[in-house]
């Protein structure tokens, strides 16, 4: 996921261009780009093709950034838990191990 995000960021697109387009129009262009095949995108006029590709890539960058941050928060959540929560989790794990070894 991070590799994809880095590849998109290496394109160095100017996200400020997206601010010139109404949000609803931008979302529709991005949705159109997700649905279309490469052959259909090729058949668009040059200006339309550039707009669709730009919107799709910017939307994808946003989604990948959100997903990466969400994954990081999930992974780091265990490190940020308090001692009481950690003790409960350890107790549950020990109980599960004992049950699996010695039966119910």
List the defining traits of the structure above.
mainly alpha, 104 residues
What this model shows, in words?
The chain is mainly α. The chain has one domain. Helix 2 packs across helix 4 (46-80). It has helices at residues 2-9, 23-35, 38-42, 46-80, 83-102.
Topology:
Blueprint: H1 2-9, H2 23-35, H3 38-42, H4 46-80, H5 83-102
Helix pairs in contact: 1-4, 2-4
Concise structural overview:
This protein is 78% helix and 0% strand. It is an all-alpha fold and 104 residues long.
Number-wise, the strands total 0
- The sequence of SSEs as H and E is HHHHH
Mean pLDDT: 84
Uncertain stretches: none
Helix content: over 70%
